[in-house]
Amino acid sequence: MTRRILADGVRGREVWAWAMYDFANSAYTTTVVTAIFNAYFVAVVAAGATWATLAWTTTQAIASLAIMLTAAGVGAYADRHGAKKKLLAVTTVGCVAATAALFWVGPGDVLLAMTLVAIASFFFGSGENIIAAFLPELAGEEDLGKVSGWGWSWGYLGGMACLGLCLAWIVAAKGRGEGADSFVPATMLITAAFFAVASAPTFLLLRERVQASPVVKVAAEFSVLAQRLLTTAREAKAFPDMARFMVCLLFYQSGVIAAISLAAIYAQEAIGFTAEDNIKLFFVVNGTAAIGAFAFGYLQDRLGHVRTIALTLVGWLLMTVIALGSDSRGQFWVAANIAGLCLGSSQSASRALVGLFAPRQRRAEFFGLWGLAMKLAAIAGPMTYGITTWLSGGNHRLALGVTGLYFVAGLFLLLGIDERRGRDAAQRG
To answer: Hey, where are the domains in the chain?
Structure first.
């Protein structure tokens, strides 16, 4: 079965090593962006100020803007130099170091926290684009969804593992009488160490298959990159389904990213969750997301990537409605687990669809464009939420309702995408 699903010359252990990067980097998104540090930033570092959520979303927006400005160029550079693994190593070290430095953030250290989180998120997002560009080299064209689903599901298990370690530390720290300003910074060291150790198999076993092009002078190199990116923009007409999907992705990912990056803050401010409650919730949700990514990975190769994404968007809308009406922890648990199922499957399907629509010799570049759309979404969604809470005096339910409209727009745009036509365009390109 493995030989049939994987591309020629690819061994199972190499795919496992590739998936281990999802396992490793999920520690950062789960503990820093989703479950622990974001709520700690609002409640402790910024002392619950009315502008705290906006400050957090602005930090994420700054990082996303930096990635947006560099993603396609980094992808093109990686293609031209056969340097995906080298660049991945740089981004990994950067994210691990900045995450570890969050250990020194305490009450009132707003600027330090924002700076370190922006740096860590920039390196994380850049690395996410690079690791995704390996996918079409590892999986057969008809099985991109399965292999992408393996990676996403394994990633959520990594997030669970790191959360479990953090939860054990927090329970022990509370037993010693420590407060959040003591035990939360320590979880950042746990997260950094987890990311560093768990990513090691990726660098040991994953092969760089793209050969470097002849070396040219630096000035000429930048000229080539600029021309290539301009060409990509001009050629959008040749890839109409890819272009429409990038716009569609921008909208629905704005809702997805707002939901996952601000869920702990919403649970804390609107439902009354504690830090320990949030960790327990997201530990379970990561398991739900792993199941969703794995199961939908197989479903999407039968149902089609576009239809699978449409199904998940309906789920996201259902989650939004339930969360808005939640007046108890039990109801919010239901909404969060629906989000978990949709999160794993929608992320996996979108990555697989980009792999299907990307011409063979320009995969890193096209995945760079995917990263560009994702980072625009990471600006639009959280900033919409943050600005709404600020203008409404801290109304998190209103903010969730406004960002939920992004799912409606994404579903509408998805209806015009022809999966077969997009694949044929990639084969011609």
So the answer is: 8-206+217-428
State the pTM of this model: 0.78
Quote the CA–CA distance of 352 and 159 in Å, as a whole number.
21
Q: What DSSP string describes 208-263?
A: --SPPPPP--HHHHHHHHHHHHHHHHHGGGGSHHHHHHHHHHHHHHHHHHHHHHHH
Per-residue pLDDT tens digits of the chain, which is 429 residues long: 444 666 667 777 888 999 999 999 999 999 999 889 999 999 999 998 989 999 999 999 999 889 878 876 777 777 777 778 899 999 999 999 999 999 999 999 999 999 999 999 999 999 988 888 888 788 766 676 677 777 777 888 898 899 999 999 998 998 898 888 889 999 999 999 999 999 999 999 988 876 555 444 445 555 555 566 566 656 656 788 888 888 999 999 999 989 888 888 988 888 888 878 888 888 888 778 777 777 766 677 778 888 889 999 999 999 999 999 988 889 999 999 998 888 867 777 787 788 788 877 677 667 767 767 877 888 999 999 999 999 998 899 999 999 999 999 999 999 889 888 888 887 776
**What CATH number has the domain spanning 8-206+217-428?**
1.20.1250.20
